């Protein structure tokens, strides 16, 4: 950027170049392409900042276009009848708590009648015993190998007390014990952090179910009282089944999908 | 031992308490009396009837410092450790002579609406039922056969509110398109063209009381565009427009002294006079939208000249006279009280005729207060809030009495039974609950709706309850 006015002085004294205006016009026409090239090439923080600025410009342009399209003629009150009628006291309120209202349990009753639950993950990879357990050596000479430590996530329950360490065959390390699960509602697509009540079934075997091991595909029971569900008979629903969708020992958390 | 027994007996007879009976407004009835401690509510009822020289024995309930007296005086005193030295003030409250049976079962589920039912109202004599819905129709239902009677088509958008005239001759409904339509309830036909004037949707409708003008001609409607309009059904036009609110008017009530109260989203309540539409008073105090208003005489104004005896009237003048008698009896000497519930989680109790400052501020709710309602005898105030509880307050002083918890979702609407002994609440969790005022506990749980319950109403003769909601069916409940 010129710091003085020498350019203007020269222009006043000598005039413009013969092709100055043509070149200026063509250069400005090329600006658009140059900007787009830069937007596509720029990497890293530079690219991000430019993209943000460009987006703001785009939004502003859209708004001005919409403003110009608005006619100045008085518009009639909207005629079409919308769905989802609400009474007058709910009209000005956003239904942010709509996420907590669940679909009615008629679907659930139909499923119960059919007698089968179609779970989101019908098949899971079987977990081998040597993957699940790690051998712990014990004894004075470290020769005894009857103890096993579970290497997967477990749920033990609030009233759990260990057996005396001398007789305990399966060790569940506290670092791998979980009490809460991130449960997603499949229709509303929102996730809640709910307490686990118990492990219902582990697909790898009844032994793992009784130990409380939580792997991918396990059906767990979660406490849904914070969702405020009510059965048609008027009773409050506080426990529902959910199926685990991730490998908790790799992620450090249990993600599950609610079975509705 | 015999002697000890005799001494004990004497001691018991000597144990009496100085009591002063007074009515709910504070005026004492008779001189202070020396009552034995074995006296209970039954003996007190006899005494009050004699002191008031009643021909029939009316039932009364007794309250000592806002707690109901259910046992003998002696046990009450020992339980609460009240000293015998001071004069005990016992407040007596007349109870309704008739008793309403609580509703327990759903007698009918009537389908008919194709969209959610937004409002439900019984006629003042309890013989007819109307409901407005999101499918733009108003439907009239036959209560004897529990089937649909008429379908009133004519609105362009959702029917948000309906109101019966206190003489039962007219039914008016307001829609989201800002138009009002008057229907003839006998044949379900519109009584004329839609009344247009509001620019946005109608939030509430209230008729002029019968004792001020019979037959009923005028009603006031409130709208989101910020003004309230007074309409005349015989002239079929808007007579006065009450402008002044800067935001939507959420509720409107026509008071018994001939003033109109409007509550608005601009946090104020305005009091208007009805002959010229001038603003009399502005009641400020709330911190957020005013959601709902209730008057202490509201039930009497709604039912007009009809009461639980089910009498029919021959002429409008007779209706006016009877309605005026009922209104004066209900009001007594005290000025009309107004309670307003707001989004700022509190309610105010006002006496608008006396002062523009609130009488009491009623706090305690943890979420916005959606609906407030005075009991038919004006003794209690009930408030429904989005914090899943219904709270009961004293109707004259505004003191908190009890909280009813049991709902698992926001409570939308409440309704009283005609004898003020039972309270009904409908909530987003699809259940209705009946609460007993005497025991302050849940009387009956009424599940059955498949989705949120938007509107509830108890018929003035106390026989039936009607409820409607998002599941599009109208449910009738009976005792």
TrEMBL record, chain A:
Pfam families, per database record: Ribosomal_S8e
Lineage: superkingdom: Eukaryota
Main location: nucleus
Signal peptide: none
Subcellular localization, as worded in the UniProt entry: Nucleus, Nucleolus
GO cellular component: nucleolus; preribosome
One Gene Ontology term from the biological process aspect of the record: rRNA processing
CDD domains per record: NSA2 (cd11381)
InterPro entries linked: NSA2_fam, Ribosomal_Se8/biogenesis_NSA2
Keywords of this entry: Nucleus, Ribonucleoprotein, Ribosome biogenesis, rRNA processing
Similarity comment text for this entry: Belongs to the eukaryotic ribosomal protein eS8 family. Ribosome biogenesis protein NSA2 subfamily.
Complexes and interactors: Component of the pre-66S ribosomal particle.
Role played: Involved in the biogenesis of the 60S ribosomal subunit. May play a part in the quality control of pre-60S particles.
Protein name, per record: Ribosome biogenesis protein NSA2 homolog
Source organism: Coffea arabica (Arabian coffee)
Gene that encodes the chain: LOC113739597
From TrEMBL, chain B:
Classification via InterPro entries: NLE, WD40/YVTN_repeat-like_dom_sf, WD40_G-protein_beta-like, WD40_PAC1, WD40_repeat_CS, WD40_repeat_dom_sf, WD40_rpt
Highest rank taxon of the organism: Eukaryota
Entry's Gene Ontology cellular component terms: nucleolus
Cellular compartments annotated: Nucleus, Nucleolus
Keywords from the named record: Nucleus, Repeat, WD repeat
CDD domains: WD40
UniProt WD repeat ranges: 110-151, 152-193, 195-233, 242-282, 362-403, 404-445, 446-479
One example of a Gene Ontology biological process annotation: ribosomal large subunit assembly
Domain NLE: 17-77
Positions in coiled-coil regions: none
Family indicated by similarity: Belongs to the NLE1/RSA4 family.
Primary role: Guanine nucleotide-binding proteins (G proteins) are involved as a modulator or transducer in various transmembrane signaling systems. The beta and gamma chains are required for the GTPase activity, for replacement of GDP by GTP, and for G protein-effector interaction.
Subunit annotation: G proteins are composed of 3 units, alpha, beta and gamma.
Protein name listed in UniProt: Notchless protein homolog
């Amino acid at each position: 950027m010129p710091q003085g006015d020498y350019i203007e002085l020269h222009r006043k004294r000598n005039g413009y170049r013969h092709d100055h205006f043509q070149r200026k016009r063509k250069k400005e026409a090329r600006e658009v392409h140059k900007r787009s090239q830069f937007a596509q090439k720029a990497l890293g923080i530079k690219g991000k900042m430019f993209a943000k600025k460009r987006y703001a410009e785009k939004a502003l342009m859209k708004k001005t276009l919409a403003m110009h399209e608005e006619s100045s003629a008085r518009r009639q009150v909207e005629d079409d009848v919308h769905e989802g009628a609400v009474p007058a006291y709910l009209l000005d309120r956003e239904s942010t708590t709509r996420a907590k209202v669940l679909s009615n349990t008629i679907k659930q009753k139909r499923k119960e009648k059919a007698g089968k639950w179609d779970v989101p993950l019908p098949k899971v990879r079987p977990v081998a015993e040597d993957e699940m357990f790690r051998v712990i050596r014990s004894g004075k000479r470290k020769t005894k190998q009857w103890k096993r430590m579970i290497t997967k996530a477990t749920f033990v329950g609030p009233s759990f007390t260990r057996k005396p360490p001398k007789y305990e065959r399966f060790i569940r390390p506290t670092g791998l014990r979980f009490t809460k699960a991130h449960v997603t509602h499949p229709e509303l697509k929102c996730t809640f952090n709910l307490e686990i009540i118990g492990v219902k079934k582990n697909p790898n075997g009844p032994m793992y179910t009784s130990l409380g091991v939580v792997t991918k595909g396990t059906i767990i029971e979660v406490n849904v009282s914070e969702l405020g569900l009510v059965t048609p008979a008027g009773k409050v629903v506080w426990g529902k089944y959910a199926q685990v969708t991730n490998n908790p020992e790799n992620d450090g958390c249990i993600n599950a999908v609610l079975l509705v | 031992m015999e002697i000890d027994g005799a001494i004990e007996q004497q001691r018991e007879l000597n144990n009496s308490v100085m009591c002063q009976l007074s009515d709910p407004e504070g005026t004492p009835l008779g001189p202070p009396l020396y009552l034995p401690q074995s006296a209970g509510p039954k003996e007190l009822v006899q005494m009050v009837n004699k002191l008031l020289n009643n021909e029939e024995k009316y039932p009364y309930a007794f309250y000592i410092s806002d707690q109901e007296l259910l046992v003998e005086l002696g046990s009450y005193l020992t339980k609460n450790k009240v000293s015998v030295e001071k004069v005990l003030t016992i407040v007596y409250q007349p109870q309704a002579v008739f008793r309403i049976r609580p509703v327990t079962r759903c007698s009918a589920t009537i389908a008919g609406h194709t969209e959610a039912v937004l409002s439900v109202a019984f006629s003042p004599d309890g013989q007819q039922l109307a409901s407005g819905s999101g499918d733009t129709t108003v439907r009239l239902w036959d209560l004897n056969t529990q089937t649909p009677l008429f379908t009133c088509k004519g609105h362009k958008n959702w029917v948000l509110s309906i109101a019966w005239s206190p003489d039962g001759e007219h039914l008016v409904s307001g829609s989201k398109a800002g138009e009002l339509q008057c229907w003839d309830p006998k044949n379900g036909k519109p009584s004329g063209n839609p009344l247009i004037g509001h620019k946005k949707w109608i939030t509430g409708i209230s008729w002029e009381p019968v004792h001020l003008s019979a037959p009923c001609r005028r009603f006031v409607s409130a709208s989101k565009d910020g003004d309230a309009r007074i309409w005349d059904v015989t002239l079929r036009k808007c007579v006065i427009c009450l402008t002044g609110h800067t935001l939507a008017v959420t509720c409107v009530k026509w008071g018994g002294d001939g003033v109109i109260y409007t509550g608005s989203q601009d946090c104020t309540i305005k009091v208007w006079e009805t002959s010229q539409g001038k603003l009399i008073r502005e009641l400020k105090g709330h911190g957020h939208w005013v959601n709902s208003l209730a008057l202490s005489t509201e039930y009497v104004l709604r039912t007009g000249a009809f009461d639980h005896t089910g009498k029919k009237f021959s002429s409008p003048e007779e209706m006016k006279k009877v309605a005026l008698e009922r209104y004066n009896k209900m009001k007594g000497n005290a000025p009309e009280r107004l309670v307003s519930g707001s989004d700022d989680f509190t309610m105010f109790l006002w006496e608008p005729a006396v002062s523009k400052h609130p009488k009491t501020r009623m706090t305690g709710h943890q979420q916005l207060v959606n609906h407030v309602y005075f009991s038919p005898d004006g003794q209690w105030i009930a408030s429904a809030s989005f914090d899943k509880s219904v709270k009961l307050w004293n109707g004259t002083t505004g003191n908190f009495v009890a909280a009813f918890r049991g709902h698992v979702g926001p409570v939308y609407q409440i309704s009283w039974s005609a004898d003020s002994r039972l309270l009904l609440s409908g909530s987003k969790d699809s259940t209705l609950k009946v609460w007993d005022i005497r025991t302050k506990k849940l009387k009956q749980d009424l599940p059955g709706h498949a989705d949120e319950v938007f509107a509830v109403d108890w018929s003035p003769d106390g026989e039936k309850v009607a409820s409607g909601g998002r599941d599009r069916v109208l449910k009738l409940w009976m005792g």
